[in-house]
Design goal:
11% of the residues are buried. The chain has one domain. The longest helix is centred in the C-terminal third of the chain and has 42 residues. Helix 1 packs antiparallel against helix 2. The protein starts with a helix and ends with a helix. It is mainly α.
Length: 83
Amino acid sequence: MKKDYAQANLAWRMVIELVAGLGIGFGIGYGLDYALGTIPLFLVIFIFLGLAAGVKTMLASAKEVELQQAAKAALEEEEKRGD
């Protein structure tokens, strides 16, 4: 049961990271377009940059969790051999 919550927390963390990247990119792009009076050129550019940043952050989170799980598995394997 506890593992299910951990997986759900990880999923929510990744979703929030992606949405935050998109939201920040949208805000910056919209602000620049509004300030400069341009067509939504900066909006589109910064949405894609925000998406890329969100995906990069998600991948870093996934790698962090993978390393934690590998360390835990190695520790369990070492304990089995030590007994």
